[in-house]
Amino acid sequence: MAVGYNTISMGTGRPEFHPAKPRPGLEHYISEAGKAVIAGINQQGDLIDEAFIGNFQASLFNKQAHLGGFIPMIDPALAGKPAMRVEGACASGGLALASAIRSVLAGTGDVVLAMGVEVQNTLKAIYGADVLAAAGWYQKRKSGHAYFFPGQFSNRAGAYYERFGRDYTRKGLARWFKNAIENARLCPTAQEFENKVVDLEALALTEPNGKFFVDHLNVYDCSKVSDGASAILVLSEEGLKKCGINPEDAVEIAGWSQVARDITADPEDLTVMSATRLAVAKALKSAGISMNQVSTVETHDCFTIAGVLGVEAMGLAAHGQGAAFVADGATARDGVMPINTTGGLIGWGHPTGATGVHQAVTVWEQLTGKAGAAQIIINPDKPYALSINMGGDDVTVVAIVYKKNH
Amino acid sequence: MAVGYNTISMGTGRPEFHPAKPRPGLEHYISEAGKAVIAGINQQGDLIDEAFIGNFQASLFNKQAHLGGFIPMIDPALAGKPAMRVEGACASGGLALASAIRSVLAGTGDVVLAMGVEVQNTLKAIYGADVLAAAGWYQKRKSGHAYFFPGQFSNRAGAYYERFGRDYTRKGLARWFKNAIENARLCPTAQEFENKVVDLEALALTEPNGKFFVDHLNVYDCSKVSDGASAILVLSEEGLKKCGINPEDAVEIAGWSQVARDITADPEDLTVMSATRLAVAKALKSAGISMNQVSTVETHDCFTIAGVLGVEAMGLAAHGQGAAFVADGATARDGVMPINTTGGLIGWGHPTGATGVHQAVTVWEQLTGKAGAAQIIINPDKPYALSINMGGDDVTVVAIVYKKNH
Fold first, then answer.
1. String of DSSP letters for A243-275
2. Tell me, what's the ipTM?
3. pTM of the model
4. Which of residues 378-397 of A touch B (CB under 8 A)?
């Protein structure tokens, strides 16, 4: 995997963002990310064999489906080649990567473009919430919160508070927010890059208010509403050679998994993300490694509580101890397991269909020393990284294990 | 490929269909088709490794995205396995098949479920037309017909009339309609199964009226608005053995192609479907055969004119001679190349995201002698069949070549 690119994550918080002014559309983001990747292989677009584009809800946000048809718009060299949209709610980007991996394994592609895109600031938040609710079961939503997804994770947070202690948990969630913003401040494409708040933990501890939002989470517990695209190439050994990519500029995909949980079924235990746990276990097994060999993780923190439950799903902390693990700084950039080193969904942003690909780009940057001010040191004894991309409430999960070359 | 299943294509024309009464939803169709396939392998759902589900616009028709999450609902044995929605407008079903083929080639699956589903009678025709318009470029649509897609193909028909003669062409289109309905009358799941019209060609020659619909096509030139699902298994040799499927009950996938044309670009020549032509050529090349070895074709007749242009794209008739080829009966079930032997999109129905899979199921039935009253005789010297599934106006095309076993 090589030649990653992220557009800016555009939305509230970015100085370029004005809610009332015209903004770039889907076409712009697809084009920007695609052209950047082709520039990264010396304009040899003809070397790209296939393309997969992850997108969740352009049908509603942009009145546009059939996004595979925009791939040949990037570069005439892509005309006539296979291009396909894949969708699994907020795991759509991860599914684009999983599809690109299958393509390379199948031998149908040596050089495969995996892209994700979402342009969701076209709707006001409450209508946007309605659109995003389609990630869950529509029949269930009829009796759910107006803010359906925040409601689902608010329920998870409430269950966790009840079982393990409210103040204890909220300290962990507040630290998660602080880490996210501090990491985002190191990454120029991050939506929270220019966040200047001094006491982040105090802000994050603002009392949730169910009258205006949901019962157990506040807006700082939520990921951002973002426009953006990310793209990267998945390549065979032959593809790397064809493109003239140096091994030190690429990372190896060492293992991966893709899991689906029944969208119509309630989670057995609200304090456990069982599909995420299964996906991580399968991905590590597929790579033949344990979490002890992993240097950094990009995890799907659509909400702070999803970050904490993810830490437990990875086995970094026992059930109920994830909040303390985070509160103690273990997941900060100088902690034992740096997580979401460019801010994750809360700090970098969450252009839903692009997020899985953004995670892969961040991992690629970290393992090839291209992360700029956000760069962490990769311990040579731990040459692996992990990404976890989740769609819906722990329904579709794609987990990928990456290995640093050399 | 084996164990195919089609639900009824539900919509106007079916006696079970009442516009005002509650009808089965997405969940029902996914479940019916999925359970039927699992029943076909003696309830061994655990043997299915991966699943791909093609769907175009459930986001708008049913306020539901993330259809991969419904796969584990079919059977608990599917929980935790990879399941993904793929989308390329009306080629979504073909993309599910292409994905399943990649999965088998990649070795990630020996037994892979390819399904397609659409439930589109939830909206009135004019609103439905708006939803389906997302298959084309939204920016282009602003200046297009209210019935956007019929408008696009009306333009193609108009250009063909002008170049090759109006009466000449409309005779071919009328015969296309007649063949479609006659074939549908032989297939109990077809939407036009109970069509009793005596003079089909006369009906099809009704003058188009641009005041009420579009300039160059009438409603008989259009495919049906349908609810339905289709499913089939794509298997490796090992998968066939595991499932205990006899070779004579399976067909070989001998070749395939997937093509994308720039959705933002107008066709160079309205009387040519260039992406379809390219896809057919690539699929035949991939199978190492010519059209002379093909016994039957399932082609994407979203409109009668697409049927005629498809005939030319396959090289069955020269440019401008497709209408005569059809009018002469060459594509009828007793013609030199029987096309759409269960009625195609105009006769059987067009549950958009399911259509590509429905085509594969029909081919599988014909090549394994399971097509009932619709069965044609397969010439032993021509053991191949071809399917062509198109998304948008000749934008995404999946072509598959199948071979009869023995």
1. HT--GGGBEEEEEEEEEE--TTSPPS-TT--HH
2. 0.97
3. 0.98
4. 391-392, 395-396
